[in-house]
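Much of what follows relies on a compact textual record of a protein's fold. Here is one such record, which you should read through line by line:
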Amino acid sequence: MESKKLFGFLEFLKKSITIMSKNGTLMAIVTSIYIIIASLFFVLNISTAKPMIYEFSTKAMLLPSLDPRSLVFAQVLNTILSDFKTFLGIELAFFLALLVIALISQTAIVLLIGAAYKEEKITHVDLILRVPQPLVRMFITSFHVTLLRVGFLYIGFFSVMVPTIMVSGYNKIVSKMILWGLVVLVVGLYLYFSVVWVLSLVVSVLEDCSGIEALGKAGRLVKGRKLGGFLLNLILNLLSYVFSHLSSKMIVVNVKQFELTQVLYLFFLMGFLCSLVMFEFQAYTVLYFKCKKNHGEEIELQGSVEYSKIPRIPLVDEDLP
């Protein structure tokens, strides 16, 4: 049974990769635009934020040496608050820009994979015309998914910290084992629940539903196939963690080199992470159609069983001459 499930997961990955060849030009264009724009915005954000943080941090370090009742103290404090508000405004602008770019790209990719799965050719004009309505539904569903993720992480944080603090006064080895055990449990549950959360985004694009309705539909569809989604989440998150960790090490090692080197590392890091996100939505779109097919077969089977139980009632009295 386990080998059958593993083989099914490998077939699912193979299908997710091979389907990219259909409508491949548009998929490559959408993915490239998303990767380039998102990476540029990320690098610009880092480049803008670093000097601003350094500036108001330097000013903040001056405050303890100043007289709180002096005019200089008030001026420095007002400057720090003004710089901080500017910093928050810039960060919010970058965040909203990245969010819009990500939602548009993800919606387009889901539509392209959906068309490819149905053996349907789609032009760039058709794609542009199809995006707006699913994009609105995608935004609504992503808002609900974000609330669920934040709530889960909040509960998960306290679920890890409270038991760890309670046993911290005892054996350090035991407390560390409990800490890592709880972390693995929380991360595993997060990846497991993410199957429904990500699939709901695909559902909101391909069907006329959003928000809680899309989450409910995704939960019903994915029954019996959560293992494939969980393994996909695990692989993608491990890849992103390993690549991010290696990139951060390389940046630290080359910190004395020309700043362009660090910019290139950040650009390729963001590009790699964006590629994983796009593949995730491609794979989840394939998972959506596989779930639909399974449920369609079940409905047909149930329908035939129900039909066989209906007694034959003649429309005309057969005993009449």
